[in-house]
Amino acid sequence: MLAFAHRGGAYHPGLEGLENTMAAFRHAAGLGYGYLETDVHVTSDGVLLAFHDRVLDRVTDRRGEIGSLTHAEVEEALVGGRERVPTLASLVEAFPTARFNIDLKSERAVAALAAFVEEYAVHDRVLVGSFSPRRLNAFRRLTAGRVATSAHPGEIAAFRLLPSGRLADRVTRGRVAALQVPHRRHGFTITTPGLVRRAHAAGKHVHVWTIDDPAEMRLLLDRGVDGLMTDRTDLLRAVLTERGQWIQHDGGTSR
């Protein structure tokens, strides 16, 4: 069972307002999380940043669109009034044994991330996803299938609606390593027992986001999902520990 620290554990007590910061990721690593979830945007001068929003406005003390700012300009912003926006390179270097789940948040980030994976030789340390089929398929082409990717919404629909996982795997051309899905969406249950069965029949993982309620965690674990993403890293660790499913990682922090 994979436990993902979503944006480093964005709503852990004491970390609220510090999502996607080095402080959040270090805290998650200290708890024993070896799977860190983040998002990437790219600055105007080509630097990949671990940051969710298109603009700085919501979580920092500065304003502006990431893609129109240089890295030096972004460095002037403080998340939660105290933390700088980390580069993806700084995270990979700070947590050399951690694995990263990366959400492509902009068109320009596609080529930048593909080049980054090659430069840092982290092909086997990342799982890349996007809500945008265009972004995800472009990344797949650039990396020639050497990097694991999660399903985009159309591919999820294939596994949700087709009668068998093997048929869905053929329809999606074997490009999907994992289905990363919400439990429910717009009143519909997405992570059904049938979806889990079909995914497993095709050898795919099912990871569910973003689960912060212990009762919901237990329900999904009983359903057989392979991973949970959470903002409440403390609660997920407690639930997995009580079930004997917690795997303590060294956190991957460089010494």
From TrEMBL:
Q: Per its UniProt record, what CDD domains does this chain match?
A: GDPD_cytoplasmic_ScUgpQ2_like
Q: Name one GO biological process term.
A: lipid metabolic process
GP-PDE domain span: 1-240
Q: Which GO terms describe its molecular function?
A: phosphoric diester hydrolase activity
* Gene3D superfamilies tied to this protein: Phosphatidylinositol (PI) phosphodiesterase
Recorded hits in InterPro entries, A to Z, give:
GP_PDE_dom (IPR030395), PLC-like_Pdiesterase_TIM-brl (IPR017946)
Write down the Pfam families for this protein, in alphabetical order. Answer: GDPD
- What protein name is recorded for this chain? Glycerophosphodiester phosphodiesterase
| Native source organism of the sequence | Nocardioides luti
Question: What is the phylogenetic placement of the source species in the record?
Answer: Bacteria, Bacillati, Actinomycetota, Actinomycetes, Propionibacteriales
